Amino acid sequence: MIHFHSTISVLATTFLMAQAATAEEVSLAVAANFTAPMQKIASEFEKDTGHKVTLAFGATGKFYAQITNGAPFEVFLSADDETPARLENEAQAVKGTRFTYAIGKLVLWSAAPGYVDNQGDVLAKGNFRHIALANPKTAPYGAAAMETLKAIGLADKVQARVVQGENITQTHQFVSTGNAELGFVALSQVFKDGTLTGGSAWIVPPRHYSPIRQDAVLLNKGRNNPGAVALIGYLKGEKARGIIRSFGYEL
Questions:
Q1: Which residues pair with residue 53 across a beta bridge?
Q2: Which of 16-30, 90-104, 124-138, 192-206 has the lowest mean pLDDT?
């Protein structure tokens, strides 16, 4: 019996040592809208694989500039599909690794319950001083917000009241703190497990904006990192996909 337990102990120690020897650190650049789901996925990934993850969140356009200027990111989760494709074409990313990890949804949201109706009529009524949206030049959700305002014929009417966030996280902060009464944010920021987490919202019909296909890609700096390669695979697995769905994304 003693011999049996000591053998198990040796095997366990050997396994842990082997795992430690192969554990890698992975550096990710992640679109701001995907902050909450990626934090949860990263935690599960670390537990399941032993690899460690370093996360940076921000606007897709800014990450593109940083990556092309040599930033040490190994995996990129974009808020669009164009930027990863461009990085691939410019030989900054590994061909054949790009895939759509989520399809995002735009929502008009207010931190105040009952403020935003479920048809978005609050926009036409115009009883607000400020409306927040992300910079449409660097943030795909900001571009989708501008498309929506144009599609419903209100872009000119609300232009003077727009406050622009550097990314979707800052945009959400403007609304959650009341600096803007309402704003266009990612559904994932205000939605969890089928329920609005607070305030009031209008989920913008997809016909009003181009599909927000969010692609991930293995960057050149991660080509030889087993942890980075493993993470790309993990994002396609059922556990990660379940987390992604729980935040309101489509797949």
A1: 26
A2: 16-30
How far is Cα 100 from Cα 87, in angstroms, rounded to an integer?
15
Asked if 200 contacts 112 with a C-beta cutoff of 8 angstroms, the reply is: yes
* Residues 6+ positions from 179 with CB-CB distance below 8 Å: 130, 132, 163, 173
Q: What are phi and psi of 117, to 5 degrees?
A: -80, 165
Given a cut of 60, whether residue 2 has pLDDT beyond it is no
Is the CB of residue 57 less than 8 Å from the CB of residue 169? yes
In a 13 Å sphere around the CA of 226, the CA atoms on its Cβ side amount to 9
pLDDT number for residue 153: 97
- In total, the chain counts a number of residues equal to 251
Share of the chain above pLDDT 70, in %: 92
Whose tokens are 């795992």? That residue is 19
Alpha-carbon gap, residue 217 to 211, rounded angstroms: 19
Burial class (CB in 10 A: 0-12, 13-18, 19+), 61: buried
Report the distance separating Cα 243 and Cα 34, nearest Å.
11
* pLDDT for position 192: 87
Q: By the 8 A CB rule, do 13 and 58 touch?
A: no
Structure tokens at 46: 């670390």
User: Strand, coil or helix: what is 224?
Assistant: coil
Instruction: Determine which helix (DSSP H) or strand (DSSP E) holds 88, and give its type and residue range.
Output: helix 82-89
> Rounded to whole angstroms, how far apart are CA atoms 14 and 29?
33
Q: Measured between alpha carbons, how far is 167 from 89 in angstroms, rounded to an integer?
A: 25
Does this model's pTM top 0.85? no
